[in-house]
Amino acid sequence: MFISIDHLTKDFRGRPAALNDLTVDLPQGMIGLIGPNGAGKTTLMRILTGIIKPTEGKVFIDGQDLSLPANRRNLKRHLGYLPQHITPYDNLSPLGFLDYIGILKMIGNKRVRQEQAHTLLEQVGLDDVMNQPIGGLSGGMRRRVGIAQALMGDPQLLVVDEPTAGLDPEERMRFRTLLAQLGQDRTVILSTHILDDVAQTCPWVCVLRFGRNQYDGPTEGLIHEAAGHTWVTPPIAAPPDNATIINAEPTPQGTRYRIVTDTPPAGSVETAPNLEDGYMALASER
Amino acid sequence: MRILSLVRITLLMFYRRKALWIASIPLALFALFLAYASPMSPGFSNTDGLVFTGQVLAMFTPLAYAASFSDLMTAGRRTGMDELESTSPLPMAVIRSAHVLGAWVICISSSLLFLVLIAVHQAFKGNGKAILVALAVALVILSPSMLIAMGISALLGALLPTIVARILAVLAWAWLAFYTPLLPLPTLNGGPLAVIGDPIAQGWFHTDPIYAPANGPFTVQSGVISLLWQACIILLLFTGANIASNHIKAQV
Ligand SMILES: Nc1ncnc2c1ncn2[C@@H]1O[C@H](COP(=O)(O)OP(=O)(O)OP(=O)(O)O)[C@@H](O)[C@H]1O
Ligand SMILES: [Mg+2]
């Protein structure tokens, strides 16, 4: 699915615009949506899924204008959504809950629903607890129930808002692999604060800041923002000035910093940037 | 068909709600005790007794439901389930109706069980139509009153803070169901708009009403009017609750 976002603005009463004249085109495939807290990621996702309406501007999905109810209804037949904050009905078991979501997604045949639910719960590693009440599951397990429900009905457009928040490292890796498979023949919009997830799975990335589009394009391009500006300092006593510090590694001689800057301290070695460097380079531009 | 599957799942959602059972079963037992021990009681041994028991259940058990369902339309906003449900191609009104129906089945089940037990006992004693009467009483006397109490609770809950809504809904039901000349309040009891089944009980089942009718005995038509009126009220309450909760959501 091809998503075209055209001069989108969303105002919540008495606040600065959550989205501010945002224009961006998103191609088919895996798209990473990143940006600081409050940048408008969740707001954008809620508009893309038809939950709220923008104050101004339009969204086209495969050329279909989402402001028309018929197009929204049509979109919902092919949509999977994981909200940032969701507490599934805790009286239901994961299996029961996925069955419920299957009904909501108009999968009429009960056997089909049950089979899908089983497969998905296995894929997110919940086979052992699929019949226990969700209320008794751990936070990360509930998150995985949320991921599984978003995949019910094999949606063509998958919108997942911080899906890996609270997952243990093993599960995060497993989820990445699952996403990468899914992204081959559909559009997945993934918001996250874990840049590594984006670096590993998303060829395309969009950076929001203050409701505006700060970067959109290939992930490589964002990494490239820091090319020629990423350095590793020798062990020094105090953090360097005029530099964005990416990480700090203590050594017996002092601290070794990885920095993004135009003016590295003497003795620094230039190094190949990664997505974190690119993101921070972009952030420090403003 | 789809709505039935939805209702089935909603049943699962509600039947594990312990508070609902803890509140409603003692009230149902208390109502049964009153229905048996009250000086007005025709006893448990005949059809009149079934109708009377149904009416007393219809007065008392809705107190529990008035207190329980203030979050019926708003819980989803807190849990994020509203967002998920609104990405379904099914209209929200259908999903919410399924929730209401599921909750209703749970609510009526305990009272219905008691009524049917009494009816089965009567059937063994030779009252051939006892079970049919029990089912009819559950449908036309108990259900409307339960749904009205739930609807009041849901509507107030969509408009007011939940705890305030719970209290007001219980008070509202108490006003609707219990009338005493000691309080200088107008009442719907005694007229065709009563919500505890007097017009239907007297008009259709020919039993003595709990509150004396203001303008002569209730007739078959009073029963029809009463049922239609209750259906309208139920529809209005839940539609209002649905609109109110959507409207409040739209503001944020
Ligand atoms: N329902 C709402 N009512 C009022 N303001 C809101 C609402 N939802 C979002 N906002 C505001 O809109 C802005 C963007 O919020 P949003 O949730 O989209 O950010 P985000 O990028 O998802 O942040 P995070 O990374 O913390 O999840 C914030 O300033 C927030 O306060
Ligand atoms: Mg967010």
Automatic annotation (TrEMBL), chain A:
GO molecular function: ATP binding; ATP hydrolysis activity
Similarity comment: family membership: Belongs to the ABC transporter superfamily.
Source superkingdom: Bacteria
Gene3D superfamilies: P-loop containing nucleotide triphosphate hydrolases (3.40.50.300)
Record-given protein name: ATP-binding cassette domain-containing protein
Any one Pfam family match given in the protein's UniProt record, by short name: ABC_tran
Domain ABC transporter: 3-235
Cited PANTHER family: ABC TRANSPORTER, ATP-BINDING PROTEIN
Keywords, ordered alphabetically: ATP-binding, Nucleotide-binding, Transport
Automatic annotation (TrEMBL), chain B:
GO molecular function: hydrolase activity
Bilayer-crossing regions: 20-37, 49-68, 101-124, 130-156, 163-182, 227-244
KW Glycoprotein (keyword) present: no
Keywords: Hydrolase, Membrane, Transmembrane, Transmembrane helix
Positions in coiled-coil regions: none
Protein's UniProt name: Murein hydrolase transporter LrgB
Classification lineage: Bacteria, Bacillati, Actinomycetota, Actinomycetes, Bifidobacteriales
